[in-house]
TrEMBL record:
CDD domains: STKc_PknB_like. It catalyses: L-threonyl-[protein] + ATP = O-phospho-L-threonyl-[protein] + ADP + H(+); L-seryl-[protein] + ATP = O-phospho-L-seryl-[protein] + ADP + H(+). It holds the Pfam family PknG_rubred. InterPro entries: Kinase-like_dom_sf, PknG_rubred, PknG_TPR, Prot_kinase_dom, Ser/Thr_kinase_AS, TPR-like_helical_dom_sf. Its EC number is 2.7.11.1. Residues 167-433 form the Protein kinase domain. GO terms for molecular function: ATP binding; protein serine/threonine kinase activity. This is Serine/threonine-protein kinase PknG.
Length: 746
């Protein structure tokens, strides 16, 4: 009889509730996993029962709302299939180390192989099923009472047996769907090995799967996939001799510790993705991935248990899958995309307790139901895309998935331990590299949003890069139009770059500019509704047209597709701010700035949002985050002074001190800094009764009394006048100097 979970009443399987994912309370678990088949010795034996309930996924939360992207450009839009390789996102060598070098993972003790041997090598009753009709049988050996097919669940090898003249059997260590797994010792090479045998010679499906496994694995060679050493026979039974991996499975780690820290869980999935990239490139699909199949050893992870591997598109052979992990379509035609679905499901199970095999079989809890999702919006969006019920909405390659998951990990680590800037393979960096003080504190600059990097796999990539290097926008427009005519539908980049050029240069295309931009983007959407890049430029166009409410869902679509990128969040922040939703914009600005402080657009946006909400101290703090080495550091310091001057009712002594320090540091920048310093001195002189200042501490280089403040301000105004850009500005500054000058007898 199955044991009930003490938390939710669900069924305990292998020591873990299959509904909520929490470990069973009662027993001490000793776990051994070899070749992917895990043996659990416990006081209570768990029954295996999988419910099949499907609920609708929800994307709503009190903290944020996730909208799924819509496809097509009109009412006549038709269903299409996502194209592959829309954007080049090859994996990077920076992730060779587990966790991409961003985190340190706990050391796991190595296991003595002999401790993995089963004390009583017996298949549990609930796992004994007829290989032909699937009826449960009671004995370990005999004939099926339903169809008469013979079966045998007893191990055929015992301790001391020697297979193929050199593999000494130590004993069974695990049992799985294709048979017994034995620990062996290679007496020639003096190393432990694993022998994986066939469950039942009369079971045609198991026999076929074993043969298929041999055929596929002979050519599989990858450092993150368990090695295959040999194929041998002992009597009528065949064995695959595999590498012994003496670590611990991620599944057993999850059982021991409960939900893992998010960064650690991501590191394990990120570490195994190169193995899937390799398999898919070989035309193979893994099919039945779950945390049981990842072994942690020597500071790295390795994919084990290749029993369910099959060729992509192969119409023959059984399909092995696990409820709660497998994609909805995998029962009929498992693909690389359905493999990636299992990785997303495995990651979800590693970080949270939820009824993954029943209530949420093909769904995720909402952020309202799970704190870890509420605290990590990018991770939630990543999981939503990875486990989408529609294969076309998921990540389309392991490399693409890895690139975005690395970005999510980078954000999580940055929020915990400090900034983690890195170049994006999809977007350029922050476009705000030159701005006036007024531009920083007054309004967003949508044209300074990052651009898209040229997709080098595009047919016209070389020509596009050449045209982008031209200095004359008129010539660029002419050549891009020629390139569009040349390639028509065979290349995307020429149309994308033409639309971007027209958006960023309002003097081009004349009166027809708007229709030209939109028609170009419409043609791209019609050609491929799954390509999100036209949405990026369409959103920027709406921002420049003061239609921020239309831009926001387009940026959100980009965020859905690229959850590990900073640029979509910056776009969402700007769109929300321009739509008047400053509290909605603020978290996007702050996340971007904390991950990569070089995004001055994010710091300036956060400062504006805080200031509009009356939080002057937080606004100053946002601008203080601009790095010392950034070209806009001085402008950010002067912007702090501008914020204080713009909100006199909010200024107190500490805020004035921070403004004085910032402006004082910027004085070496020239005339504009002296003008702000003069205005700050004038402010201090006029509010002297309400302010205190340490007597021995200079205020912008002078004493803190009314006469000294006025004289200092006069000098600053006159200094600024000498650097004025026009006669009118010079006259104004001289007039200000005369006005603030204290009354004297000379």
């Amino acid at each position: 009889m199955a044991n009930a979970c003490t938390f939710c009443g669900g069924t305990i399987v292998d020591g873990v509730c299959e509904d909520c994912g929490k470990p069973a309370k009662a027993a001490t678990l000793i776990t051994a996993n070899m070749g992917g088949m895990e043996h659990v010795a416990s006081v209570q034996q768990a029954a295996q029962q999988q419910d099949t309930l499907t609920t609708n996924r929800t994307g709503k939360s009190t903290r944020f709302t996730v909208h799924y992207p819509t496809r097509g450009t009109g009412t006549n839009a038709t269903k299409t299939t996502r194209r592959r390789a829309d954007v080049s996102t090859h994996t990077s060598t920076r992730r060779n180390a587990l966790g991409g070098g961003l985190i340190s993972l706990p050391d796991l003790p190595s296991l003595d192989p002999l401790t993995l041997l089963m004390a009583t090598p017996e298949v549990p009753a609930h796992k004994r099923h007829c290989g032909k009709c699937d009826v449960q049988v009671n004995r370990s050996k005999g004939f099926c009472p339903n169809c008469g097919t013979p079966y045998d669940f007893e191990p055929h090898l015992k301790q001391g047996d020697v297979v193929a003249g050199k593999y000494e059997v130590k004993g069974p260590i695990a049992f799985g769907g294709l048979g017994w797994i034995y620990l062996g010792f290679d007496t020639v090479l003096s190393r432990y090995v694993v022998l994986k045998g066939l469950l039942n010679a009369n079971d045609e499906a198991s026999a076929a799967a074993a043969v298929a496994e041999r055929r596929y694995l002979a050519a599989v060679k990858h450092p993150k996939i368990v090695g295959i050493y040999d194929f041998v026979n002992e009597g009528a039974e065949g064995f695959i001799v595999m590498e012994y991996v003496g670590g611990q499975t991620v599944h057993s780690l999850r059982k021991q510790r409960g939900p893992l820290p998010v960064a650690e869980a991501i590191a394990y999935i990120l570490g195994i993705l190169p193995a899937f990239s390799y398999l898919h490139a070989q035309g193979l699909v893994y099919c039945d991935f779950k945390p049981d199949n990842v072994m942690i050893e020597g500071g790295d992870v390795k994919l084990i248990d290749m029993g369910a591997v099959r060729k992509i598109g192969d119409p023959n052979g059984d399909i092995y899958a696990t409820v709660g992990f497998c994609a909805p379509e995998a029962d009929n035609d498992p693909t690389a995309v359905s493999d990636l679905y299992t990785l997303g499901r495995a990651l979800a199970l590693l970080i949270m307790d939820f009824k993954y095999a029943s209530t949420y079989e093909h769904a995720l809890p909402s952020p309202d139901e799970c704190v870890v999702l509420a605290e990590n919006e990018s991770l939630y969006r990543f999981l939503l895309r990875a486990t989408h019920v529609d294969p076309d909405e998921r990540f389309q390659s392991a490399d693409e998935m890895a690139e975005q998951l690395f970005g999510v990990l980078r954000e999580i680590v940055a929020l915990q331990s400090g900034p983690r800037p890195a170049d994006s393979k999809v977007f350029t960096g922050d476009g705000l590299i030159d701005a006036t003080v007024d531009q920083l504190v007054s309004t967003p600059l949508p044209l300074d949003l990052p651009s898209l990097r040229v997709n080098l796999e595009d047919r016209a990539a070389t020509e596009v890069i050449r045209i982008l290097s031209l200095m004359d926008p008129v010539q660029q427009e002419r050549e891009f139009r020629a390139l569009v005519a040349q390639y028509r539908e065979r290349a995307v980049e020429p149309k994308l770059r033409l639309a971007e050029l027209l958006i960023r240069n309002d003097r081009l295309a004349g009166d027809a500019r708007a229709s030209d931009i939109l028609s170009t983007l419409d043609s791209l959407d019609a050609a491929d509704p799954f390509d999100w890049r036209p949405s990026w430029f369409r959103a920027i166009w709406f921002l420049t047209s003061n239609e921020a409410s239309k831009a926001l869902p387009l940026f959100e679509r980009c965020y859905f597709e690229m959850p590990g990128e900073l640029a979509p969040r910056l776009g969402m922040g700007i769109a929300a701010e321009m739509a008047g939703e400053v509290e909605q914009a603020l978290p996007y600005y702050e996340r971007v700035g904390r991950v990569d402080p070089s995004y001055v657009s994010a710091h300036a946006g956060a400062a504006r949002c805080h200031a509009k909400a009356g939080r002057l101290g937080d606004a100053i703090a946002a601008l203080e985050q601009v790095p010392d080495t950034h070209a806009l550091r001085s402008q950010a310091q002067m912007a702090i002074g501008e914020l204080v001057l713009a909100h006199p009712a909010l200024v107190d002594d500490p805020l004035l001190q921070r403004a004085e320090a910032a402006v004082n540091a910027a004085l070496s920048n020239g005339g504009s800094a002296h003008q702000i310093a003069a205005r700050l001195l004038s402010f201090a002189a006029s509010h002297l009764k309400n302010l205190t200042w340490p007597a021995s501490t200079p205020f912008l280089g002078g004493n803190f009394d009314e006469n000294a403040l006025r004289i200092n301000a006069e000098g600053r105004f006159r200094h600024a006048a000498r650097h004025a850009s026009s006669r009118e500005e010079r006259c104004f500054l001289v007039s200000e100097a005369n006005s603030i000058r204290p009354v004297t007898l000379f």
